[in-house]
Amino acid sequence: MVGRGEQPVSEQRPRGVVVGVDGSEAAAGAVRWAAQEAARRHLPLRLVAAVDWAVPAGIGAVDLQPEIFRDAIEAAAQEWLAHARAVAEDVAPELGTETEVRGGVPAAVLHHESETAELLVVGNRGVGGFAGLFAGSVSIAAAASARCPVVVVRGTPTPDGPVVVGVDGSPVSEPALSFAFTAASARGSGLVAVHAWSDSTLDAAGWALLEWDAIEAGERELLAERLAGWSEKYPDVVVTREVVRDNPAAALVSRSRRAQLVVVGSRGRGSVRGALLGSVSQVLLRHAGCPVAVVRA
């Protein structure tokens, strides 16, 4: 269905994998990743092109009639979707793939789509991205506000690498752990659970007063407690536990360069109340070496 204006998402549609499509190479990469994931999880695939029907101001000497502009934008969006469908069918021809052009600001449309999706997938930059801009505004907005897990496809995943998950030791990380174990089990890969704690706030005098061995032992115990139930639920997943004294974002970015996927919560234990996206998630969306899954707590 083609819409010009916000349209309700059908309550009867099965929850599946939704991909934002905008004609960019980054979006094509997101479609490839999403098609593989949908096939792996036996979920339907939905490709959505969101377009703003408003005629832009300051277009120069050309005075476009609204209907002419809309027809041109719609035709372009349909071409994006046709190409995206071809990409998806090349990856997973058995998939049932649905396409739709929806009117509205892309971030708002994808937020609406996320309300009935199992997973939302976007590229790291759109057609309006600048060279050197590592994460586009739409991908940041989607990761910050979506009602379902969001995967931002970026970097070059290591095919036989593990799934990496950041664990901060709080209940906030439970949804991320669930997603990470499910992803590792579906891929037949290992899982690296990283619990990073930083001593950057201490001065030299503070360092001398602390018993680092005891602190590290406590952090290891905390990680083991968080993983215990999940390891029992997913006995097929081989888990490597890593407790490191490092900045959490730096630790995860480093490990993402040898991973298939890195998974984090949308907000960590130290996030400011009211913040939609934690600092660790934001760093990963800009610098990770593989796709990043942001899971809402």
UniProtKB/TrEMBL annotation:
Family: Belongs to the universal stress protein A family.
Name recorded for this polypeptide: UspA domain-containing protein
Domain of life: Bacteria
SUPFAM superfamilies referenced in this protein's UniProt entry, alphabetically: Adenine nucleotide alpha hydrolases-like
Ranges for domain UspA: 17-154, 162-296
Transmembrane segments: none
InterPro entries: Rossmann-like_a/b/a_fold, Universal_stress_UspA, UspA
Pfam families given in the database record: Usp
